[in-house]
Write a structure and sequence with these properties.
There is one protein chain. The chain contains 4 helices and 15 strands. The strands form 3 sheets. It has a 6-stranded antiparallel beta sheet, sandwiched between helices. It has a 5-stranded mixed beta sheet with strand order 7-14-13-10-11, with no helix packed on it. Strand 2 and strand 3 form a beta hairpin. The relative contact order is 0.15.
Length: 207
């Protein structure tokens, strides 16, 4: 049997709980010290995350390009997946985890949304230029890729200038600003673009 067939045979007949977002799943598993398998199936990707005593100890991704295990699989999580959770026997989870162990659990929360300061104002419609300056310890960060995401979809990309600045033409509303790190990890900041930010430059310190 393939590893995928083994996982499906384990889940067969189990009643799942959910769906949960990735962060909701991690929080619930930790608070209840859950042992089992979480599965997400969407488009042409299937994710399996293995939990032991509430911690995500293993991960597997299957898609039309093949399969990835452990940390390599977690790198490709977008954060907007929906998971069903299945309680399973600890000995089964331990055995399967041997082939897909996650060594850096921080990878699961690298894209967790943080709040960008002073960005909230609700109830307006319109459009304009959103400008931002990326700094670290007060110094501008040059050459860093910035993406703007809405409803899980990337709608714009830009690279910071020598002054650490980027600009995007946006409709008023809620967005996520994704800062791409050199080690391929990301930081995600929630914000709301509104009229008060027109002709302003928002400073984001990633120190």
């Amino acid at each position: 049997m393939t590893s995928r067939e083994i996982l499906e045979s384990v889940l067969e007949g189990s009643s799942g709980e959910g769906p949960y977002s990735l962060q909701g799943l991690l929080e619930k598993a930790k608070s209840r010290a859950l042992v089992g398998i979480a599965k997400s199936a969407e488009k042409r990707q299937e994710w399996y995350i293995l939990f032991s005593e509430g911690e995500p100890d293993g991960a597997i991704l299957y898609d039309d390009k093949g399969s990835l295990f452990g940390d390599k699989a977690v790198y490709l999580l977008k954060g907007n997946e929906q998971f069903m959770f299945y309680n399973e026997d600890p000995s089964v989870i331990e055995r399967i985890t041997l082939g897909c162990r996650v060594f850096d659990r921080n990878l699961f929360t690298r894209g967790k949304a943080r709040d960008m300061p002073e960005m909230k104002k609700v109830g307006e419609t319109g459009a304009g230029i959103f400008s931002m300056k990326l700094v670290m310890g007060g110094n501008p960060v040059q050459g860093r890729r910035i993406s703007i995401r809405r409803a899980g979809q990337i709608i714009a990309n830009d690279t910071t200038s020598s002054e650490g600045k980027v600009s995007f033409r946006l409709l008023f509303g809620k967005y996520e600003c994704v800062v791409h790190e050199k080690d391929l990890s990301t930081r995600v900041y929630e914000f709301e673009f509104h009229a008060d930010l027109l002709n302003q430059v928002v400073t984001l310190d990633i120190s």
